[in-house]
Design goal:
about 170 residues; mainly alpha; 7 helices
């Protein structure tokens, strides 16, 4: 348990610092990589909801402070944290089917994890970009930003998950 807490804290700090740098990157004037929410996806499913909300709010608030966005990421993270378990239950019928309490490619399988993670990334991008735009004046640009940022973030989060998750290898 202590190992999981330590890994989560290190992952939180590293990805939050990387997100501060990634906020300055806008590909083709529409796609912004959003990688810090991987920590939210990786939290144990048996963690109390109160702690999930607190962690999500603090993650979003930290990115907001460094990115000079007044509460937008904090609100989007909190909304996604409320939808985390219902989305997981859509794709995994029981918690018994998971190998580990940490949602990852190893515990859910590639198909279920990709659906779980993609749904939450898309929801986060929808919440964030509608909060940022707060108007339907440039609706097409907002939809483009949601789509391309979601695709870029999904690819990057899959790469991060492949680096972070520990696979048990059989020794000869």
């Amino acid at each position: 348990m202590a190992k999981t807490v330590f890994q989560t804290i290190v992952l939180f700090v590293v990805l939050t610092l990387l997100q501060v740098v990634c906020n300055k990157i806008i590909l083709f004037n529409v796609a912004t990589p959003i990688i810090f929410i991987y920590v939210l996806f990786r939290l144990p499913i048996n963690l109390a909801k109160v702690w999930i909300f607190i962690i999500a709010f603090l993650m979003g608030l930290t990115v907001d402070i460094f990115g000079n966005t007044p509460g937008m990421n904090a609100l989007a993270c909190t909304l996604v944290s409320a939808l985390r378990l219902p989305v997981l239950n859509l794709y995994v019928s029981r918690e018994d089917e998971m190998n580990s309490p940490l949602p990852s490619i190893d515990s859910l399988g590639i198909g279920n994890y990709l659906k779980y993670m993609s749904t939450l990334v898309i929801l986060y991008c929808i919440f964030l970009f509608f909060i940022q735009a707060f108007t339907l004046k440039d609706a097409l640009l907002t939809v483009e930003r949601m789509g391309f940022s979601s695709m870029l973030s999904i690819i990057l989060i899959l790469g991060i998950d492949s680096l972070v998750s520990t696979r048990r290898e059989k020794r000869l």
